[in-house]
Amino acid sequence: MINRRHFLTTVAVGTASAGVLAACGTGSSTSGQTGSADNPVTINYTWWGNDDRAERTRKAIALFESKNPDIKVNGNFTDFAGYWQKRATEAAGGGLPDVMQWDLSYLRDYGQRNQLLDLGTVKINTDAFEKSLLPSGQIKGKTYGIPTSTNAFAVYYDPAKLASLGIAEPDGSWTYKEFNTFLTEVGSKSNGALFGGTDYTGVWWMFNVWLRQNNIEAFTSEGKLGFSKDDLKKWWNLTADLRGTPAIVSEERVTQLAPKSPFGSNVTATEVTWDNFMAGYLGDSGAKELKLVPVPSDDADNLGLFLKPSMLMVASAKTKFKDAAARFIDFMVNDPEVGQIFKTSRGVPASKTQRDGTTFEGTDKVVVDYETSISQYLKDAPEPPIVGFGTLETSFKRIASDLNYGKLDINGATDAWFKEAEDLIKQNA
Amino acid sequence: MTTMATPTQSAPETGAPVYNPKSESVGAKRAKSTVFHLAALVLTGIVLYPGLWMIASAFKPNSEIGGGNTSLWSENFSLDNFVTALDGIGGVSTMQFFTNSLILALGAVVGTILSASVSAYAFARIKFPGRSVFFGMMIATLLLPFHVVIIPQYIIFQQLGLVDTYIPLLIGKFLAADAFFVFLMVQFMRGLPAELDEAARIDGAGHVRIFGSIMLPLMKPALISTSIFSFIWSWNDFLGPLLYLNTPEKYPLPLALRLFQDQTQSSDYGAMIAMSVLALLPVLIFFLIFQRYIVEGVSTQGLKG
Questions:
Q1: Cα(A153)–Cα(A261) distance, integer angstroms
Q2: What is the CATH number for A329?
Q3: What ipTM was reported for this prediction?
Q4: How many whole angstroms from its chain centre is CA A192?
Q5: Per residue in A112-165, pLDDT tens?
Q6: Nearest CA-CA partner of A57 in A113, A3, A99, A4
Q7: Which of A60, A197, A253, B2 is most buried by a 10 A CB count?
Q8: In sequence order, what DSSP letters do the residues of B231-297 get, joined into one string?
Q9: Among residues A83, A421, A398, which one has the least CA distance to residue A251?
Q10: Residue B71, CB half-sphere, CA atoms under 13 Å: how many?
């Protein structure tokens, strides 16, 4: 008898499809095919993002097509998680789109597998870029990605919440001790209604900033870990006295609030993260205004801050239209009118031409002003993270939350993370 | 009130504590039934709560959904989320997403019904060399996870130039590639008495006639179950459309729903939930219309001609 409850979730697909592979693809010259106004070439461009980005990108594409009548751009988009599933399948099947929006953490993986076009072989103008930023799109001297825009680490706070507690707004020149005192003050003055912040030692990039403040590199040029267990212990000890107090929101609460962040849910007064999350926090929390100040540092001259490409543009290694792809990338990263269209929704424009050609107002201005204010402290952008970096970042967060749950002590947490990290690096070596 | 009063009143009237099995069992029955219904209601409440949460949240402003807001109902009741949801995404109207989903789901139903029933007839009623081997192989494809075949399949469709069409998503349905449904129908057909088709054969009917005039009408319950499940699975399928469709104009609803969320920008949970509510309606309606046939299917199977 058929048991209808045993639904098989896997839908098996038969191999009925005939194994006839069409031998398609006309022989293309190495410089790629070019089009003309009467007979334009069509390139595929894909990005992740929401409705808002789709609308802005559509405008940018229309502008590009009107300026370049010999090229048509076919734009497609999906959400971030689906985006990478789709790219992985396409890469395996040899069908990556011509031009793609890209994330730094996937650059090395695809670059090393020769899936991405070496953009040094085509004409893209990078004169208007900070020299310290470009290496983050390069692997072993080859340029695989051009940054569209940058983001930097910052401490967010909600001025209205601080005012209601009678706490002065911070100016961003603080040591870790002062920052901890500030978090504790928020927690104690609000009588538990508001936490100081989330445990910032659980954020990988904040750890990275702290390492830079102490002149330690996160990864060596050989792709090994550049810091010791003692460094990590010191880091996780920074908030040892705050865990379980109103200074830091409990891990149970964080889990209950997901997918929203505690800061976006109006449960904490501060959050340490990237400066381009502003629009998301404003939308989630409904707050009128949020402000940004630099991260704490025990060395007032070295804040360990850097600009990271919030997004890059890459091309497929197999594209038949290299020139067209290069012209589109050049347009998207340099054109001032494109800057006007996107404002800071991709991050702060990386190219000076584009940044100067854009007028920033309101929230956009807060983010741009912040990046300008820290410009004297900025150091070189990091190289593309090692393969499997995403896993390392996630396990860093997970182990730090076990620390907050009290499942692990600092020694145990350090050993656990190092073991995972070393295994992963060995696997991908 | 009267139910509880009956046993206590009747006892003193007889003057002695006479055991009254009938009234006591009625009382016990009622108590039992009350407890049962209360428990059932509580369980229903728990099971339905996520659905209730979804519907309630669809009417809330974005900043009040999830996070620290635990109350089910918001005082800022509004239909804004539905307006945003119906606005479409990136220039593609929401109706377009609905139409696409409907094309895919109905295509899947038609394809599966046509192909699976014919294949099942062959397996159940025609003796051909290697039948059990082929049947075994078909069952074996059930054990093959979808994720194993994704890449080879993608390469085939990509080389054939069929990516960004509905063909990769539907062709399998028309070729009886859903082994689960073939298996379901084979089992159902094996339960039908062989005397029926023997009688038809004596009257001169061939396989086409037997299949069309005898088997298909008797298989109605199995066909209905198959329709329901292939409709719902196709309606909810995310990975297939994600991999094979590129143009947003061709996206079905599950892909569109994800576009309201963005990790790197702001997420519009309100519009996403409003659209989820809308996306749920067709499945619900489809299920409500056909669900009584499932029950009918089970009882007919019990009778067996």
A1: 17
A2: 3.40.190.10
A3: 0.74
A4: 32
A5: 889 999 999 999 999 999 888 999 999 888 999 999 999 999 999 999 999 999
A6: A99
A7: A197
A8: HHHHHH--HHHHHH--SGGG--HHHHHHTT--SSS---HHHHHHHHHHHHHHHHHHHHHHHHHHHHH
A9: A398
A10: 8
What mean pLDDT do residues B224-246 have? 91
Q: What percent of chain A has pLDDT over 90?
A: 67
Q: Which amino acid is at A13?
A: V
All residues at 6 or more sequence positions from A68 whose CB lies less than 8 Å from its CB, including other chains: A327, A328, A331
Q: In what order do the strands lie in the sheet with A99-102?
A: A71-78, A41-48, A99-102, A308-315, A146-151, A348-349
Give the span between the Cα atoms of A152 and A294, in whole angstroms: 9
Residue A26 included in any domain: no
**Burial class (CB within 10 angstroms; exposed 0-12, middle 13-18, buried 19+) of B151:** middle
Chain A: closest CA distance from residue B87 (Å): 10
**Architecture of the CATH domain B86-303:** Orthogonal Bundle (1.10)
The answer on pLDDT for A381 being more than 60 is yes
Note whether B71 contacts A: Cβ–Cβ < 8 A. Answer: no
End-to-end distance of chain B based on CA atoms, in angstroms? 49
Which tens digit of pLDDT belongs to each residue from A320-329? 999 999 999 9
Nearest to B244 by CA among B147, B109, B151, B154: B154
Interface test with B, best of A5, A6, A13, A343 (most B CBs within 10 A): A13
Q: Any CB–CB contact under 8 A between B291 and chain A? A: no
**Residue A332 near residue A75, CB atoms below 8 Å:** no
Residues A388 and A270: their CA atoms lie apart, in Å, by: 30
User: What are the residue ranges spanned by the domains of chain B?
Assistant: 2-82, 86-303
SS3 state at A367: helix
* 8 Å CB contact between A422 and A225: yes
Domain annotation covers residue A315: yes
- Rounded to 5 degrees, what are φ and ψ at A34? -120, 155
The total of other beta-carbon atoms located within 10 Å of residue A349's CB is 29
Split into its structural domains, chain A has a count of: 2
- On whether both A203 and A228 belong to a single domain, the answer is yes
Identify whether the C-beta of residue A148 lies closer than 8 Å to the C-beta of residue A346.
Answer: yes
Which of A79, A90, A102, A265 to mutate against chain B (most B CBs within 10 Å)?
A79
Look at A14 and B66 and tell me if their CB atoms are within 8 Å: no
Place of tokens 């290069």: A326
pLDDT (0 to 100) of residue A7: 33
Q: CA A39, CA A29: separation in Å to the nearest integer?
A: 18
CA distances from A41 to A247, A334, B160, B254 (A): 58, 22, 21, 32
How far is the alpha carbon of B204 from chain A, nearest alpha carbon, in Å?
31
Report the candidate in A225, A175, A251 with the shortest Cα–Cα distance to residue A414: A225
Mean per-residue pLDDT for B21-33?
78
Tell me which chain B residues have a C-beta less than 8 angstroms from the C-beta of A259. Answer: 66, 267
Backbone conformation region of residue A223, classed left if phi is above 0, alpha if psi is from -120 to 50, else beta: left
